[in-house]
Specification:
The chain is an alpha/beta fold. The chain folds into two domains: 136 residues, serine acetyltransferase, domain 1, CATH 1.10.3130.10; 116 residues, UDP N-Acetylglucosamine Acyltransferase, domain 1 (3 Solenoid), CATH 2.160.10.10. Helices cover 43% and strands 14% of the residues. The chain has nine helices and 15 strands. It has a six-stranded mixed sheet. Strand 14 and strand 15 form a beta hairpin. Helix 1 runs antiparallel to helix 2 and helix 5 packs antiparallel against helix 7. The longest helix has 17 residues.
């Protein structure tokens, strides 16, 4: 964790020296910190603060959650590494932390989820609403999301209350993981390890997207997807195999077999 923090800090020093416009921001969010955890606390708090629930109060809240659940910071680092290895537009961890709203919204979710589990549902829903307004993704705090997740771009992503997303999943922009009506109880998708869900895809109901499956862009998925299958269309049907490599890692979005 601290190795990546040193890289973040060194990158911040380099950018601050070459781009005076960003120097105050970098000093405030990165350079004044001596370790990863307090920097992460401030970044998360700042991303969703408003005039009524300020940064200082949110910093205390986030810090309490990280102390109670150290796994949150570990998941955050895995998410950083996921974006670094999967997104060719990522030049390093610094812009991921400061500029990528999908990543930022995912970290706010992690705090909201911890609050939800602790019975602080109103506070959790406040964070959900703020993240949706200022960052884009609308992630219900009751949903269960693993680590090594990439929400690419982040715009328009909706993740429902009973959704479960395992580790090492990549989700593109404008994806909906939703229900099919007014049913209560378990009503949202279960997305297994290694899955890639393409831009604009809609996955509805308590269905399972099997391990290392691929959902093509624009598809509407209403039934279970077998492991290692590629599905496409409206409604989606199996059109091929995703191959042995996990699509979430390879980021191969074409319909051809890998």
């Amino acid at each position: 964790m601290e190795e990546i923090f040193e890289r973040i800090k060194n990158d911040a020093k380099r950018v601050a020296a070459s781009e005076p416009l960003l120097r105050p921001k970098l000093e405030h969010f990165v350079l004044r910190f001596d370790s990863f955890a307090p920097m992460a606390v401030h970044l998360i708090a700042s991303s969703v603060a408003d005039a009524h629930v300020g940064v200082a109060d949110l910093e205390r809240l986030v810090s309490e959650c990280l102390t109670r659940k150290p796994s949150i910071a570990e998941s955050m680092m895995r998410d950083v590494k996921a974006v670094l290895t999967r997104d060719p537009a990522s030049s390093g961890p610094l812009p991921i932390l400061l500029n990528q709203k999908g990543f930022q919204a995912l970290q706010v979710y992690r705090i909201a989820h911890a609050l939800w589990q602790a019975g602080r549902r109103e506070a959790a829903q406040h964070l959900q609403g703020r993240a949706s307004i200022v960052l884009g993704p609308d992630i219900h705090p009751a949903s269960v999301i693993g680590s090594g997740i990439m929400l690419d771009h982040g715009s328009g992503i909706v993740i429902g209350e009973t959704c479960v997303i395992d580790d090492d999943v990549s989700i593109m922009q404008s994806v909906t993981l939703g229900g099919t009506g007014k049913d209560t109880g378990d009503r949202h998708p279960k997305v297994r390890t290694g899955v890639l869900i393409g831009a604009g895809a809609t996955v509805l109901g308590a269905i399972v997207i099997g391990e290392s499956a691929k959902v093509a862009a624009g598809s509407v998925v209403l039934r279970d997807v077998p492991a290692h299958a590629t599905v496409a269309g409206v409604p989606a049907r199996v059109v091929g195999s995703s191959g042995r490599a996990a699509p979430a890692i390879s980021m191969e979005q074409r319909l051809l077999d890998d």
